[in-house]
Design goal:
The structure is a single chain. Helix content is 26%, strand content 41%. The termini are far apart. α5 runs parallel beside α6. Strands 8, 9, 10, 11, 12, 13, 14 and 15 form an 8-stranded antiparallel beta sheet that branches. It has a 5-stranded mixed β-barrel with strand order 1-2-3-6-5. The protein is an alpha+beta fold.
């Protein structure tokens, strides 16, 4: 009885302490998961075979950079580098496919096809290589073609070499290695190797234009009216708004540089560029459009050369002129209308990978006011009056433009 009691206590301790000694049955695989697993295994077997073979082979005849004949077990077999497509040395449906997909030139394709064949003959020669078989298939003519790769004595892969040299493009292949192969192809594109070579010099590949816009973000109008007093029927006075003495329109404005870059076909790579630009500003501190004279008015001239005392109308005119001068707060000899130009240089990186690219560079928002006071128009605030632009692509200056109004 005591023995059974100890066993019960031990079981409870294991249960509450979360011990892993308790057996956890494995979850049963569902039918959907089983189908997916079998599908993946069949795909892997189709691409790589049940046991990829490593055999010594001899390359005899090169038909294409990715297609040639080999001697295997005393028999001549057609062999294709899995996942690649290389151009032919003559017109063919393969070249038409590459031209349609990548916009290649037909004659450039045939030239690259010959270079790829010569490269393969040179790199293989009489060397003994090892063959990695992935699968086999039958073409339209009923010939069996072995799919795989060639591994050289220094452990380098022919598939990688062809992609790095630009003698072939990625065309399907093992899912596990597709991303890696695409990276090799992208490297060849950026280096313009083999099939990706562009005979045009860099500045002739692009047409660049620029434009300048100064747009209004918001506007607000303020009007200041004269205050007058009038008597009511009850004898009291009331304030009323009279005529408009001042009008001020407050703007928030922003400048933009619009750059349009058109590339010539084909665009086979990603071009990296830098745009360096500068906005020019002008500070307005009041633009005078009429003169206000502070010369003291005089009365009529007497015969003895002296002047008569000022009339009441002349005295009133003198007071109005002095009041105007105080309102405008302007000196007798004029004033500086505009401040110095200010420039702020910025640099922005960009990438080009299409036939047409639009870039927009916006400035900071500035405030600007147009005012009208007692018949005088004047401006205060900041305006953008132009820009300076440089466009660099792949470290080469391809476009400059300067506009200053």
């Amino acid at each position: 009885m005591k023995f059974h009691k100890n066993i019960s206590i031990l079981f409870l301790l294991i249960l509450f302490c979360g011990c892993d000694l308790i057996f956890q049955p494995k979850e049963k695989e569902t039918s959907v998961e089983k189908k997916e697993r079998i599908k993946r295994e069949k795909m892997k077997e189709k691409l790589f075979g049940k046991s990829p073979k490593q055999l010594k082979i001899e390359i005899c005849n090169v038909l294409r950079a990715d297609l040639f004949t080999i001697v295997l077990d005393g028999k001549t077999q057609n062999f294709h580098i899995a996942g690649l497509l290389a151009p032919t040395t003559t017109r063919s449906r393969f070249n038409r496919f590459l031209t349609k997909k990548f916009k290649f030139d037909t004659f450039d394709l045939m030239k690259t096809g010959k270079e790829g064949v010569n490269f393969l003959r040179e790199i293989t020669g009489d060397r003994t290589s090892r063959l990695k078989i992935s699968s086999s298939k039958t073409n339209g003519a009923g010939k069996v073609i072995i799919e795989g790769d060639i591994i050289f004595g220094d452990a380098t892969s022919l598939r990688e070499k062809l992609l790095e040299m630009g003698f072939a493009v990625v065309n399907g292949g093992p899912e596990d290695g597709l991303t890696y192969l695409e990276r090799l192809e992208l490297q060849a594109r950026n280096e313009e190797a083999g099939i990706w070579k562009n005979s045009l010099e860099l500045r002739k590949r692009f047409r660049i234009e620029s434009d300048f816009e100064f747009k209004t973000i918001s506007v607000q109008t303020d009007k200041i009216r004269a205050q007058t007093q009038s008597a009511t029927a009850s004898g009291r006075t009331s304030d009323k708004s009279g005529h408009v003495q001042e009008t001020h329109r407050h703007f928030e404005k922003q400048a933009e540089i619009i750059v349009k870059i058109d590339a010539r076909k084909p665009v086979q790579r990603i071009y990296k560029g830098v745009a360096k630009y500068t906005f020019y500003t002008k500070e307005s501190i009041g633009k005078r459009q009429q003169e206000i004279s502070l010369a003291a008015p005089r009365g009529k001239l007497k015969r003895d050369g002296t002047y008569k005392p000022l009339s009441s109308s002349d005295k009133e005119k003198k007071r109005r002129d002095e009041r105007k001068a105080r309102d405008y707060n302007r000196k007798v000899k004029g004033q500086k209308v505009y401040g110095d130009d200010a420039a702020f240089e910025k640099s922005v990186e960009f990438e080009l990978n299409s036939l047409s690219t639009n870039l927009v560079f916006a400035s900071d928002v500035v405030e600007f006011t147009e005012s009208k006071k007692a018949g005088v128009n004047y401006e205060t605030g900041t305006q953008y009056v132009g820009y300076d632009l440089e466009v660099w692509i792949e470290g080469e200056l391809l476009y400059t433009h300067k506009l200053k109004r």
